Amino acid sequence: MQNTYLRTNKVVVVCSARSGESKDKGTTNMLLRAAEEALKEGSEKHLEIVEEITNDHLHAARSVIQNKEILLQLEAQLKKECLKLRSFLEAAEIIDEISPRSKDIIVGMGEKLSCTIVAAVLKDRGIDSQLVVLNNIIDREFTTLDQAFYDYIAVRLGQVVAECGNKVPVLTGFFGNVPGSLLNSIGRGYTDLCAALAAVGLQSQELQIWKEVDGIFTADPRKVETARLLPIITPEEAAELTYYGSEVIHPFTMEQVIKAEIPIRIKNVENPLGSGTIIFPDQTTKLTNGYATPPPTPAVLAQNGYHLDLSRKHPTAVTVKDKICVLNVHSNRKNVSHGFLAKIFMALDEHNIIVDLISTSEVHVSMALSSDVDQNSLDKALVDLKRLGTVDVNQNMAILSLVGKQMKNLVGVAGKMFTSLAEAGISIEIISQGASEINISCVVEEKYALNALRAIHERLLDVDPSVELPNLNAATDTE
Fold this sequence. Notes:
This protein is α/β, with parallel strands linked by helices. The protein has a domain at 317-460: 2-Layer Sandwich (VC0802-like). It is built from 15 helices and 13 strands. The chain has helices at residues 2-8, 27-38, 45-64, 68-95, 100-124, 147-162, 182-185, 190-202, 235-243, 251-258, 298-303, 337-350, 375-385, 413-423, 449-460; strands at residues 13-15, 129-134, 168-175, 207-211, 232-233, 264-268, 277-279, 317-331, 355-360, 364-369, 389-403, 430-433, 439-445. The strands form three sheets. The chain has a six-stranded antiparallel sheet with strand order 9-10-8-11-13-12. A hairpin with a 3-residue loop joins strand 9 and strand 10 (364-369). The chain starts with a helix and ends in a 19-residue tail after the last helix. It catalyses: L-aspartate + ATP = 4-phospho-L-aspartate + ADP. Keywords: ATP-binding, Kinase, Nucleotide-binding, Transferase. It is an enzyme of class 2 (transferase). Belongs to the aspartokinase family. It comes from Parasitella parasitica.
């Protein structure tokens, strides 16, 4: 079956580092810990971590490779790479320094090890594969990460894949010497970005992102038993869900693929026969690159709760973002309103603090700050903000976001959302509805977030997707 598929489809594989039983045991997190431990005087922990990573990958290889010759070659290769890692960390220990570029090299070892195993597994299954390490793919000097850089990477990836001929290329998600370092400039989502740029460079028919969930749901199925799998979703909705707590795919990564009009399918490694969720290009102004995955028909759109203009018949999903910090700043009235707001944002910008959600009046501003805000930066910003007025800090909050394209046209949806919270006895700290027309968000205490999530889902999402809520725009679905 596998070889039959490969006779009619050209496949490129891009691998991330291996995950573990918990996030702490994931290879990337272990490598980052090893880098930290290497700089601690007298610590041997980084060597123990390398040993653990080595044993984990050897065990994984032995559990899946059947051909003894392939296994012996793979074991030797894995041991060699892990020995290089150990030597690199020992060198960092001696000079007592790990630069951003050095940290990239350490973290990139995770992708190299996993790709080495995957390439060997394919050979073991009779599929001719080729490991492609992308460390040196960038052969030009770049000073900034702009669209020209990403376009260049896409072209280079297309060239590298072409050099593999009829073999199945297995690409490391880690790629090259990125300006400012890969981790600092792009972050942990670089593997998805690499896959996206490869899809663009190859003008692929479809990009598949394989995760440990069946796709995108109306809510986190681990928290809401009645959550439904969404067969299709627009890029804007997927981006909004990702930003407000659902781990789907990084919006920038998605943007690279969608503007090339390539559909993205989210699939589950533990349920490969499942259909997953398709994030479909919503602008079809030019011919698309292929139609292994055709655009949804009017009937499919209607069945999944969309009008022909891709506005929603009802909300798409609800998500929650935990560990939020809320700042309330009340003006001391020494500033006019526009000066008050300007100084608040200047203080936040100076300390690199990102605001997830905001509500303002002439003399009062409430802001929800991201869960990963640096405490030291926050403390410094608070000193500046207290010069402007009274500042209250509320920790352990959560943002609830109801998402749906052009949702402002749905009559009474905000009322139903907030009524469901009131009936559940949950107080709201902040309310925000963006101009994007795609989400309604509110902030509640984190301890009530789960009940709030379930209450909103029961009221607004436990419905037949094809059933239409009252809409300000007359139905225009005509074929």
